Amino acid sequence: MVDLSSKTTAALLPTDILFQTPYWAQVKSRLGLRPRAFDIATGGPGGDVLVLLKTLGDKTVAIVPQGPEHAPEQEEYGTFIENFSLALARHLEPGVAFIRYDLPWTSPYSDELREGGRTAFPEGRVREMRMNMGTRHWNIRKSFEDLTVASSLVVDIGGSEDAILDGMKPKTRYNIGLAQRKGVTVQTVGREKLPEFYALYCQTARRNGFKQCGYDHFAVLFQSLASSPDHSELLFLLARHGRDILAGAIVGISGKAANFLYGASANTKRNLMAPSLMHWTAMRHARERGCTTYEMGAVSPGVDPSHPFYGLYRFKTGFGGRIEYRCGSWDFPLDQDAYREFSNAERLYRSGSNA
User: Fold this and answer.
1) pTM greater than 0.85
2) Separation between Cα atoms, residue 139 and residue 206, nearest integer Å
3) Per-residue burial over 35-47, b = 16 or more CB atoms within 10 Å of its CB, e = otherwise
4) For residues 16-39, average pLDDT
5) Residues 169-186: b if buried by 16+ CB within 10 A, e if exposed
6) Residue 257 and residue 126: Cα distance in Å, rounded?
7) CA-to-CA distance for 285 and 188, rounded, in angstroms?
8) Is the pLDDT assigned to residue 355 strictly greater than 50?
9) Pairing mode, strands 141-142 and 293-298
10) Cα 241 off chain centre by
11) Interatomic CA distance for residues 243 and 260, integer angstroms
12) How far apart are CA 21 and CA 58, in angstroms?
């Protein structure tokens, strides 16, 4: 059984998961979503959870960003999600088509991926069969695409700076030193530099062919800090060479975890390796603030040159660390017809975006 009781988002418990904080509730509220918070009472993992309600036409989607935080035993993943979903549905407004979870829990396939037995997660229907084992309704669906990242590179930064550097590949250490020798500098800056970062971000989006976020999306990250009751923080860094801005990063901090949220790099002077020095500087600042991990974000699950994130894998694994293999995004339909319609539209949209 899972029992939920509503509370204010300001009362969310301290956590290392930035996306389950009062700060993140403020960010998403300013972007038009409606945040809700609930205490969780179970015979197993408890805690609390942030839920975001998003209106799509005449329907609503309930999104659980990297939550619930505390995982049950792996063989109970599906039954917990089923029970949690049914309990949550009783607290949600009519018209919610489905609940989407971005589960931060360790993937059941993590050992195989880490040991090289796999280079990718199994296809969705295979994962669905495993997730639904033991459930009553067999109603948990693998989302067409993960909401954030199922495979993320995490660097341990709790030790000394020398220890962190020793954990990097020689080429990455060389690139950090090269950037320093060539006169690249990295500074923490304030929100007044956001227009300069955004121009660089748009340049990066055009070069790499991904859909860019609007300027307001970045502005609310900083606007929400002032009204947030918790201790979330942002690191905002720009790397320069002379008058040229070569790279930028926005890093979110919650508890002892730092998350690389957004980055950008210039088309020019790429031989100066500014992004390498930028990440190293971000790690040092995060460590000074008490962080023990620095999460760099998406990578391919393994050594697979055909994977769209393989380039990120090659760059990020140079910093050492480990790949965290998570369950990713899953859906629990409440209105089967509406969910089917949404899923079909989402597949068409995503397929078109990736064409």
Assistant:
1) yes
2) 39
3) bbbbbbebeebeb
4) 97
5) eeebbebbeebeeeebeb
6) 32
7) 9
8) no
9) unpaired
10) 30
11) 25
12) 28
Q: Residue 118 and residue 258: Cα distance in Å, rounded?
A: 28
User: Is residue 50 a contact partner of residue 14, using CB atoms and an 8 Å limit?
Assistant: no
- Going by the DSSP 8-state scheme, the letter that residue 107 receives in this structure is P
Please give the residue that has the higher pLDDT: either 118 or 350.
118
| pLDDT (tens digit per residue) in 224-250 | 998 777 789 999 999 999 999 999 999
Question: How many angstroms separate the Cα of 163 from the Cα of each of 129, 143, 156, 281?
Answer: 42, 39, 10, 15
| CA dist 22 → 31, 177, 221, 226, 260 (Å) | 14, 39, 12, 12, 19
Q: Is residue 350's pLDDT more than 70? A: no
**Contact assessment for residue 91 and residue 4, using Cβ atoms and an 8 Å cutoff:** yes
- DSSP conformation letters of 120-141: SPPPHHHHHHHHHTT-SS---E
pLDDT category of residue 351 using cuts at 50, 70 and 90: low
Region 99-106: mean pLDDT is 97
- DSSP letter string over 174-223? HHHHHHHHTT-EEEE--GGGHHHHHHHHHHHHHHHT-PPPPHHHHHHHHH
CA pseudo-torsion sign 273, 274, 277, 280: negative
- Residue 247's φ and ψ, nearest 5 degrees, are -160, 160
DSSP 7-60: E-GGGPPP-S-GGGSHHHHHHHHHTT-EEEEEEEEESS--EEEEEEEEEETTEE
**What is the C-alpha separation between 98 and 141, in angstroms, rounded?**
10
User: Residue 32: left if φ>0, alpha if ψ -120 to 50, beta else—which one?
Assistant: left
| Identity of the residue numbered 173 | R
Say what the pLDDT of residue 306 is.
87
d(CA 205, CA 200): 9
The whole-angstrom separation of Cα 305 and Cα 41 is 44
Label residues 215-249 b or e (16+ Cβ within 10 Å = b): eeebebbbebeeebebebbbbbbbbbbeeebbbbb
